[in-house]
């Protein structure tokens, strides 16, 4: 009987440890990113994560969530189902500066013809940044792709951009970090879980 109780305790502790590990897969700069999240009835797994540095400053922690593990840019961009990019701010950044960084990242990773077709969603995306004064340390920004609805942007649990049903624009946003001229090559490798 004692043996069964001991085995039961070991299994309970083992399950608790496994759950704790699953709930917080990665910790970067004191920020914990969950191993999985639920978005529109889909379970997304953390594909990769890293820290965005600018000069000597840590700007944000970023995590890429997908339904299945992907290790190539083409597979991420073609992924079916929901997707999420989570940014957790490590410092205060003015929304104008942050919006400009997004615009530059998109411009550097799209050609002229694509930029023309993306001009309308880009204008809506840029206007979103005028609705907030700044992103503060600790703020959480989610850039979600919701199948059937489109791209939704949520800041600290509050929707700040109504759905934009334009997969090409969402992929253009993803290419800020995953494109041929990403904001940081090391960060690109981390998001794709490359060694």
Description:
This is Chalcone isomerase family protein. It comes from Herminiimonas aquatilis. With 195 residues, this protein is of the alpha+beta class. It has one domain: Chalcone isomerase (3-Layer(bba) Sandwich), CATH 3.50.70. It is 41% helix and 33% strand. The strands form 3 sheets. It has a 7-stranded antiparallel sheet with strand order 3-4-5-6-9-10-11. Strand 1 (26-28) and strand 2 (31-33) form a beta hairpin. The longest helix has 22 residues, at 2-23. Residues 2-23 have low confidence and may be disordered.
- Can you summarize the main beta sheet? 7 strands, antiparallel
Please work out how many helical segments DSSP would assign: 7
Number of strands: 11
Task: Give the oligomeric state.
Answer: single chain
* Residue-averaged pLDDT: 89
CATH topology name, in short, is Chalcone isomerase
CATH hierarchy: architecture = 3-Layer(bba) Sandwich
Query: What structural class do the secondary elements suggest?
Result: alpha+beta
InterPro entries: Chalcone_isomerase, Chalcone_isomerase_3-sand, Chalcone_isomerase_sf
GO molecular function: isomerase activity
Domain Chalcone isomerase: 25-192
Organism: Herminiimonas aquatilis
Please summarize what this structure is.
This is Chalcone isomerase family protein. The protein is of the alpha+beta class and about 200 residues long. The chain has seven helices and eleven strands.
